TrEMBL record:
Comp. bias regions, Polar residues: 16-28
Record domain DNA mismatch repair protein Mlh1 C-terminal: where: 78-364
InterPro entries in the cross-refs: Mlh1_C, MutL/Mlh/Pms-like
The organism's taxonomic lineage, starting at the top: Eukaryota, Viridiplantae, Streptophyta, Embryophyta, Tracheophyta
Domain of life the protein comes from: Eukaryota
Protein's organism: Fraxinus pennsylvanica
Protein name as it appears in the record: DNA mismatch repair protein Mlh1 C-terminal domain-containing protein
Length: 364
């Protein structure tokens, strides 16, 4: 976990014999073990400096969505929203605020954790937690002032809800609960149709009277959520919202939107490392005990990959990492107010300290 105090603010400057201090004495050089070699604006040292990624080609994958601007109305003067925003401000941790505001993104350590440098410390940061909290806060700050993402293929609520319910089912092939799923989908569809005016005016979610979802909000510019998680989001709107209490209603809707827009790992397995095995075609092989054939991917040759699916996975994962570096972290520096809970919940983990490493090397 991260040091709650995050103390040890250091002044870094260039010392020169021609630049004396006001007292006439030569300025003190920064000790080697406290020297900061990168800053949040300097890309030197980032892993992306050694990779060739064409973000414009990756962004073509979002061509099914188009942005729609709307004229902002008067600021929603609702005490419940003001209280939720004040809760964010009052619960902000000053040390973490300095960390996210002045960190340098290095690269992804795995599917969830990113490597960050802050001054002389190296951290692992859970980008799913960070993006979820950022999106939640942005929903509350942008309340009633959202531009919209127009869906090129309007989505029927009922079909999305049934799809989400099937994904939640432990045995999606079983038909014994089909009637119950249909009933839940119908009830949630009718519920959301009753809330269309509020959802569009306050959150930019446009649903037609016939239950067709047309638009979703823009939370961060140049970013669209993973639409594979769209059915889950619609089900969450139907099941998990407290529609009776205004403040809790807005809070739970903002949380549902934040979870949908968070930068979760894609549903397709990561083609790097062991995940590549998932993209080998299923082939028939003879059983060692007889003439029975069975399906296996282990004996597949290199040219027996599902190249179309593999390319889709590579583009999806590359786009996510590009979005983390170029959208999430710049937005995080500007807007995120990290809650105190992130000090102890594993969102930030300090993995190295230059001062401690310097002491170790001195003993060698």
């Amino acid at each position: 976990m991260v040091d709650p105090s995050l103390s040890g603010s250091m002044a870094v400057g260039k010392d020169s014999p021609n630049n004396p201090s006001s007292s006439g004495q030569k300025s003190q050089k920064v000790p080697v073990h406290k020297m900061v070699r990168t800053d949040s604006q300097d890309p030197a040292g980032r892993l992306h400096a050694y990779l060739q990624i064409n973000p414009s080609s990756q962004l073509q994958g979002s061509s099914c969505l188009t942005s729609v601007r709307r004229n902002p109305r008067e600021t929603a003067d609702l005490s419940s929203i003001q209280e939720l925003v004040e809760d964010i401000d009052s619960n902000c941790h000053s040390g973490l605020l300095d960390l996210v505001g002045h960190c340098t993104y290095i690269g992804m350590a795995d599917d969830v954790f990113a490597l960050l440098q802050h001054k002389t410390h190296l951290y692992l940061a859970n980008e799913v937690n960070l993006s979820k909290e950022l999106m939640y806060q942005q929903v509350l700050r942008g309340f009633a002032h959202f531009n919209a993402i127009q869906l090129s293929d309007p989505a029927p609520l009922r079909e999305l809800l049934i799809l989400a319910l099937k994904e939640e089912d432990l045995d999606p092939e079983a038909n014994e609960h089909e009637g119950l799923k249909e009933k839940i989908a119908e009830m949630n569809t009718e519920l959301l149709k009753q809330k269309t005016e509020m959802l569009e005016e306050y959150f930019g979610i446009c649903i037609e009277p016939n239950g067709i979802l047309l638009r979703i909000p823009v939370i961060l510019d140049q970013y669209t959520p993973d639409m594979d998680r769209f059915p889950e989001f619609v089900l969450c709107l139907g099941n998990d919202i407290d529609w009776d209490d205004e403040k809790h209603c807005f809070q739970t809707i903002a949380a549902a939107i934040g979870n949908f827009y968070a930068m979760h790992p894609p549903l397709l397995p990561n083609p790097s490392g062991n995940g590549l095995q998932c993209y080998k075609r299923r082939v028939l092989s003879r059983s060692p005990r007889g003439g029975i054939f069975s399906e296996t991917a282990e004996n597949a040759k290199d040219d027996e990959y599902n190249h179309e699916l593999l390319l889709e996975a590579e583009n999806t994962w590359a786009l996510r990492e590009w979005s983390i570096q170029h959208i999430l972290f710049p937005s995080m520096r500007l807007f995120l107010k990290p809650p105190t809970s992130m000090v102890t919940n594993g969102t930030f983990v300090q993995v190295a300290s230059l001062e401690k490493l310097y002491k170790i090397f001195q003993r060698c």
